[in-house]
Amino acid sequence: MAKVSKEGINPPHAEVCQALADPTRIATLYELSDGEKNVGQLGAALGCNRITVSRHLRG
Description:
Layout: H1 11-19, H2 23-32, H3 39-46, H4 50-58
């Protein structure tokens, strides 16, 4: 595997990886893969309150 310096990393790629490091955000993506859901529906499915879901959606 080639060695990559920090300067060689694409910033948007790094931001996506950082965002997906949170298990709640990954679970949110799985929930949304079934179709659109509002914040209340996501909260119920994820076991989170609306404030927490909204925070993850704003990311």
